[in-house]
Amino acid sequence: MTKVDLTIEICGMSGDGTIAAGGILNEAMSGAGLSVLAFDSYPAEIRGFGRCVTHSRIGDQEMRALSDKTHALISLDDKESQSRTPFLAKEAVVLFDSKPPSYGDEGTSIAAHVEPDARLFGMPFSDLAAAASGSTRGRNLTALGGFAAIFGVPPRHFQEVITKKFKAKGEKVLDANLRSFDAGYRYASEAFKERERPALTLPEPEKEEKVLISGNEAVARAALDAGLKLYFGYPITPATPIMEYLAKTLPERGGRVVQMEDEIASIGAVLGSFFAGKRAMTATSGPGFALMTELITHGVMSETPAVIINAQRGGPATGLPSKTEQSDLHAAVFGGPGDSARIVIAPTNVRECYEFTLMSFQLAERYQTPVIVLTDFFLNNRVERVNIPSASEAQRANWNVYPDESSRGQYERYRVTESGISPRAIPGTEGFLFDATGLEHTEKGRPDYSPENHSKMTEKRHRKIQGALKDLPEPVQFSSGETLDVGVIAWGSTFGSALEAVLTAQREGLKVGALKVMSLFPYHAEVIRAFMKKCKEILIPELNYEGQLANLIGHLHGKDVVRLNRTTGMPMAATLILDKVKGIVGGK
Amino acid sequence: MSEEHFIVIGNGPAGHHAAATLRLEAPGARITLISKEPHGCYRPHLLPMWISGSIKEEALYVCPVEEYKNMAVKLRSGQKVVALNPGRKELVLDHKEVLRFSGLIIAVGGKPRIPEPLLIFKDVLFTLKTLEDARVWREQIHQVDSVLMMGGDLTSLAVTKALLGLGKKVTFMVNEEAFWPLRWSLSLFEEMSHRLRQKGVEVLADQRVKGITRKGERDCEVQVGRQTVRCGMIGAFFGLTPDVRFLAGSGLRLDRGILVDEYLNTGFKGVYATGDCAQIYHPALRDYWVSVGHDNAVELGRTAALNLVGNTVKAEAAGKCIFEAQGIKINTSWWTEF
Fold it and tell me: Can you give the pLDDT at residue B328?
């Protein structure tokens, strides 16, 4: 069977239906049994101008990262699509509107900007859509019809998705959209010779049930499955879809979503909820996270659980609202006043978005601390076809360490224990009165600023956090051989690209390996050090300028690590990491 | 227009060499080469050899497509010109993009000609003009044992040789239409029939097709006179007709091809036609002439380019334009009609 590994981009202007078309494409290809990893990039502004691009990598193998080469470009706006032509693979398919509304000067068509080897498939999108449905609005679906015909994807996969998407909007709307799609499919089937069309070989249907979901949806579903009772948030890209999803689903499960006046109020309410014994969560991005820092440290000091999703975007400040970056690691680990150790974990794919969010509630409860789940725009917005089993009872279980009966009446909320975990009573429990404060306090919770007490309690809180390591996901190693020329250590969404680069390098005979680090604080220093020890050189690729993971763990190597930092706002390409690895191996 | 922008339409041997010559002669000019075929320039006369498998595909190409970038020639392949206004010096592409030029060379070549009585059988006839046609031949030929060849143009002889090399049974229909565009000549007919028979080809002389019945995917029954010929494929080789329909209404003078003077100029300043699509005036003959074949195309392409940049070079046929196949020699120059 021919291996399928195809990257498809749809590019248009805001309002062209680009993102909608991308979503339908992804679901249809997933329905056809292919793996999908997809990501949208769009302007920060709401509507009306700016370039929208959907990137979909589909294949019959697991997709770990986007590709930096596009095999099929569907242009809904030739002016905007011109920027995508440098990324076209050799002999890429370019599907474009061959009958735009008016004649244009040289260079206005995408056809003027492609290399001679590109395979141009011009279709009158607008004319076909208008003839089929009475409006050109469905031209994005007409283009998808063309795509389906050109690549030999049975139209039913698209028709099912279109029906699902538009059924609720009434018969007329659904019919117009189906007609627009069918018009494109018919046209391409007839206009383009079968032998010129690069038909895909679709895999056999899988037995394992998989769903196509985004990182945001995975986070929200995990929170629901964890028994979330309260969500407090303030809208911000790219975290808003979490709140939107929960606003629809949480009330059905007896919970509440409250839009707060800002992020400070949001984290405050989350801490209050957990303090009262109810699971709560907030999701934000860099600017909102910055506002939360003081109260996060309040959670550290008062040993109150909280779950915070920080969906990183380009920064600092308002930064790049709709671009990806991994530049909040320092803020997540160190942000805020004082020695305020907290748990920071970072999923590397959509499935881990689900698993880590689920886990974060239990970690927050057991270790009585804010847990920060550090995602990024690429991870939040991308969709993947994954198998997400329902959370087990064990995964849902409350991990709070309650005080035993013997302490009733003489309860010390912050008792110093060997593990650093002080049994936590829920306020209102008879015989377990305590004070809670952001001031330094005694084991009973009374303010006490004495040097001895502060030293003791600071050490206790840090010991507790370090003790969490046993419950945190250990780094996972992907390597062959006892010694490696290069070890690549990556986190977050960049890990997928790193692994793809490493696997490619391994196939080419290079002695390289990868280490996936998911617990960023505390981190498994011994495991990381052991991996580093067997590597001549360590490469840490990150989507930030400062090399924030390298700053955090680089010292474990005993010598300088090699940094690969990019701040383009786009995910890191596997080829970039591969080139760097080869350069290191080759002594460059 | 401040910059010089030369456009060449057609990337066959004439168009390609016109563009290459322009590059040499006008180093500062912008050059755009528009080709409706989705690849770089290839040598059409080698297609039969590729079909037979005696050469590899790479050998067909004059240069890799990347080479156009090195030549600073913008190749727009897979794109089609649908209208021309030589007075305003602009042309329109199929996708409604308007290109303006300071100089233009039209080298669109021809398309396979099928005589009118056979047009109703068009769907079962295999022609050979383009690389795509050759791909179809390559795909199909291995699945059939026999081929019926109709016509008798230059390509038919080369294809016959290729088919014989593949061990296929070839039946060749020769009649007075066969040598089009050459005039019917008894001596040519006899020589051709003799040579073909010598090679093991069954020759059906002076017969016409009365009907074709498709019996299966690759099985045709052809009524030829009173005979019934069973074959897997039917090749139609009746020469080429200039592919100039898109120029109707452009103001250019058209006969079967584009009428040009001895310098290949169309009558519009800076607009030239060359290669198989041009009918070239000869003052001494007081008539128009055409020359076909690869070498003539290359020569005429260069001539058009030289004249576009200000030279005055008369169109000449290439020196040794004798086409030879199966031992039959045909002069490809100085025909007075297509």
Answer: 52
**Greatest mean pLDDT among A203-217, B18-32, B285-299:** B18-32
Nearest Cα neighbor of A493 from A467, A517, A512 is A517
Domain harbouring B15, CATH code: 3.50.50.60
Q: How confident is the model at residue B294 (pLDDT cuts 50, 70, 90)?
A: confident
Q: Check if the beta carbon of residue A265 is closer than 8 Å to that of residue A233.
A: no
Say whether both B78 and B138 belong to one domain: no
Q: How confident is the model at residue A235 (pLDDT cuts 50, 70, 90)?
A: very high
Give the residue among A161, A160, A123 at the shortest CA–CA distance from A142. A123
Residue ranges of domains in chain A, CATH in brackets: 5-196 (3.40.920.10), 212-396 (3.40.50.970), 401-472 (no CATH), 476-585 (3.40.50.920)
**Do the Cβ atoms of B96 and A122 come within 8 Å?**
no
Pairing of strands B209-216, B219-224: antiparallel
Which of A102, A103, A116 lies at the smallest CB-CB distance from B77?
A116
A195 vs B: CB within 8 A? yes
Q: Is the peptide bond before B181 cis (omega within 30 degrees of 0)?
A: yes
Does the pLDDT of residue A392 top 50, yes or no? yes
A321 forms beta bridges with: none
Interface test with B, best of A109, A113, A126, A193 (most B CBs within 10 A): A109
Q: pLDDT tens digit string along A211-226?
A: 999 999 999 999 999 9
- Judge whether B62 is closer than 8 Å to chain A, CB to CB: no
Q: Where are the alpha helices (DSSP H) in B37-101?
A: 47-52, 66-70
pLDDT of residue B320: 47
Count residue pairs from A and B with Cβ separation < 8 A: 61
Residue B230, pLDDT > 70, answer yes
Q: CA A437 to CA A433: how far, in whole Å?
A: 13
Per the DSSP assignment, residues forming a β-bridge with B272 are B105, B265
Q: What is this model's ipTM?
A: 0.85
Between chains, do A99 and B99 touch, taking CB under 8 Å as contact? no
pLDDT (tens digit per residue) in A72-104? 999 999 999 999 999 999 999 999 999 999 999
Contact B95 A100 (CB under 8 A): yes
* Residue B1: predicted pLDDT: 46
pLDDT greater at residue B303 or residue B152: B303
- Contact between residue B107 and residue B277 where contact means Cβ atoms under 8 Å apart: yes
Domains contained in chain B, number: 2
Are B65 and A195 inside 8 Å of each other by CB? no
Residue B248, domain member (yes or no): yes
Domain boundary among B216, B238, B260: B238
Tell me the shortest Cα–Cα distance from B291 to chain A, in angstroms.
29
Q: Would the CB atoms of B78 and A103 count as touching at under 8 Å? A: no
| Residue B98 in contact with partner chain A when CB distance is under 8 A | yes
User: Are B59 and B170 found together in one domain?
Assistant: no
User: Alpha helix locations (H) across A303-386?
Assistant: 329-334, 350-367, 377-381
Say whether A109 and B97 touch across the interface (CB within 8 A): yes
Structural domain span for residue B231: 114-238
- Whether residues B121 and B104 share a domain: the answer is no
